Amino acid sequence: MQPSERKKRHLVLKWATGGLLAVAVLAHIACMRFPGALGFAPLVSKLATVAVSALLAWHVCVGMKSLLVDIGLSKKLTVPLRIVVGVFAAIFIIATLCPG
User: Fold this and answer.
1) Which one of 24, 37, 66, 95 is most buried, by most CB atoms within 10 A?
2) Computed from CA positions of residues 43, 44, 49, 51, in that sequence, does the dihedral angle turn out positive or negative?
């Protein structure tokens, strides 16, 4: 039996968010590994950190239902856990962007 078009789109979205997340992580690692290589590295490092936070939250939210099924929890927890993930990502992003 072939997966439905909706399932195929969902899988593409999961792979796309995972790929974008991997690129953001690599950019963040490059900025941390070679901090003085570029004159604007601190800005790129902050942007990469924000991107990693946002993309990780997005990726987790996209795969939340299958994650809950895989760990044996109810799908009813999808929305509350998405809210928690979003709040943690927002807090981390704000903390990253605040000076000092």
Assistant:
1) 24
2) positive
